[in-house]
Amino acid sequence: MTKRGGNRLVWRFAVSPYEVPPGPAKGETLAQISTGLVQLHSRYYGKGPTKAKTHLVDDTVVSILRGGFTRVERTLVDTGELESVYQMRRSFQQAMESEFRQVVEDATGRKVIAYMSSINVDPDLAVEIFALEPIEASEETDGAGPT
Questions:
Q1: Which of 30, 97, 37, 25 is closest to 57 using CA atoms?
Q2: 3-state secondary structure (DSSP) of residue 143
Q3: What is the pLDDT of residues 47-64, one digit of tens each?
Q4: How far is CA 99 from the centre of its chain?
Q5: Residues near 78 by Cβ (< 8 Å), separated by ≥ 6?
Q6: What does the mean pLDDT of the chain come to?
Q7: pTM for the complete prediction?
Q8: Could you give the C-alpha distances from 16 to 22, 25, 57, 63, in angstroms and in order?
Q9: Distance (Å, rounded) from C-alpha 88 to C-alpha 63?
Q10: Which of 59, 64, 57 is nearest to 110 (CA)?
Q11: Which of 19, 28, 47, 115 has the maximum number of C-beta atoms within 10 A of its C-beta?
């Protein structure tokens, strides 16, 4: 990303201390997660999101799913019954948590230690967040302190 600082061009980078683990390329892993989550929604709701994008930052996976409300949910939203939609989605996420975790664990090869989910009605979005078990730090940072 570039920003102008006075009359000069300044480059700023966000750098992760983790390397991409061996195996499928990061883009393929993220696509696998997006596809798996959309398929779960489609299979169990009868309708899945129309768009999905997944991000991996350090030990966190974030999937943003767009356009996934069913006709029933949209009707409830349109008549002001938002809490009914929130409650139904929360119940679904609790019932399906192990399947959602499995999608991410299969794609990343890492254990999911926490899973959170939320929806937004306008625009129609769902966000799935997964915290992964941290990759072991190098021996240099074993917590022993300076010698």
A1: 30
A2: coil
A3: 889 999 999 999 999 999
A4: 14
A5: none
A6: 83
A7: 0.74
A8: 16, 16, 8, 19
A9: 20
A10: 59
A11: 115
